[in-house]
Amino acid sequence: MLTVVQAYDRAPIAEIETDDAAALERKLQAAQAAFKDRDNWLKPHQRIAILRKLAGLLEARRDHFAMQIAREGGKPLPDAIVEANRAVDGVYNAAEELRNFAGREIPMGLSAAAADRWAFTTKEPIGIVAAISAFNHPLNLIVHQVAPAIAVGCPVIVKPAGTTPLSCIDFVKLVHEAGLPEAWCQTFVPLETALAEKFATDPRIAFLSFIGSAKVGWYLHSKLAHGARSALEHGGVAPAIVDRSADLDAIIEPIVKGGYYHAGQVCVSTQRIYVHDAIINDFTERLVPRVKKLRTGDPTLKDTEVGPLIVPKEADRVASWIDEAVKGGAKLATGGRRLSETTLEPTVLIDPDPEARISSEEVFGPVVAIYRYSKLDDAIARANSLPVAFQASIFAQDIDVAMRAANRLDASAVMVNDPTTFRTDWMPFAGRRVSGYGTGGIPYTMHDMTQEKMILLKRR
What we know:
39% of the residues lie in helices and 21% in strands. The protein is of the alpha/beta class. It folds into 2 domains: 2-234 and 435-458, Aldehyde Dehydrogenase, Chain A, domain 1, CATH 3.40.605; 238-424, Aldehyde Dehydrogenase, Chain A, domain 2 (3-Layer(aba) Sandwich), CATH 3.40.309. It has a 7-stranded mixed sheet, with helices on both faces. Strands 7-6-5-8-9-19 form a 6-stranded mixed sheet, sandwiched between helices. Strands 3-4-20 form a 3-stranded antiparallel sheet. Strand 8 (205-211), helix 8 (214-222) and strand 9 form a beta-alpha-beta unit. The radius of gyration is 23 Å and the shape is globular.
């Protein structure tokens, strides 16, 4: 049995059955049998109908899921409601994408040898999908992994984070209620890490969707069966550059949201803020009082803005990083105190050492660091200096500055006057280098979960 507790106060929520090796084998066999039975594959119109019904069922239980996200994951309730709404929209997105999900014509007749032929491609599901998810968006991440698989016709087995399995389990129950046979969408909740590895690397798995740490993701990627594809979503140490032309009245709120949304437990959370010398004092004098006003505490309350970290050891780790930075010369502008076993005060550090962990590794906590710069290219070079690269921001009213930074920042997406955390569920979402592999976003995941087959017709 696995005991699930509230992130904020560690109070037990539920106990759930876990899966052993025999259960994994049964689930893989069921998925494999369903996929091999090609005559009984669901037609696109059937999959669309299931996804639309699923979206309706999910919407009807929005409040349940929002409160569950707040309890098991610690995300403040207002943000949990947003996540639940996005999950509904994501399921609709997968259904609607099927209207334009098609192959293409391959030109023939371009040489004498290719005359009298017609060729086109079709899209086929790649096979069984192993989805390993993370705790920080316990519903919407599941949707991003499961809904595309349903849409394109892949059987999917999804392993939620051990700390936040309830939203996943409830969602998969709705999938079955919507009409998808159980073999096409199953949960997998093991207690042992070795069993999770066995799941991801089983030769019957055709596609691994992994959201989590780079260390684990790249390790599993190296162990995949030959021919299997993967999509890895890790994290970054997201940089934001604030130019002297930035509108300080307009940017403080998005920067605060970017840095402290879900207590910084987001793979594109704003962590490093490079501020021009000419405005750094004005910027800091505006940012710090706003951070001090953030309402931190019980995530199930409607006015909470910053909740807990997922487990006590994560709060221990983040607190140690703050202490290390301060001992190394950083100024503690605000925060740094432990409020509870899992909750930390939102923290602002000024000019930590470039070698400090807060400057070089993903903190995944409610901390931002401010650094001064005088030349834009120097700020860009420092923003690009780490092996991770995901999303970045430039705040500027000067279009030349904004475009130069957008062109030169090493990121898969550069937000101009928006925080590094901005995302819609239909846009591409991808880490570069250590930060990931492949492209997330529902339409892009659907593409990755299919393979093209060319069919050629020769005129007699």
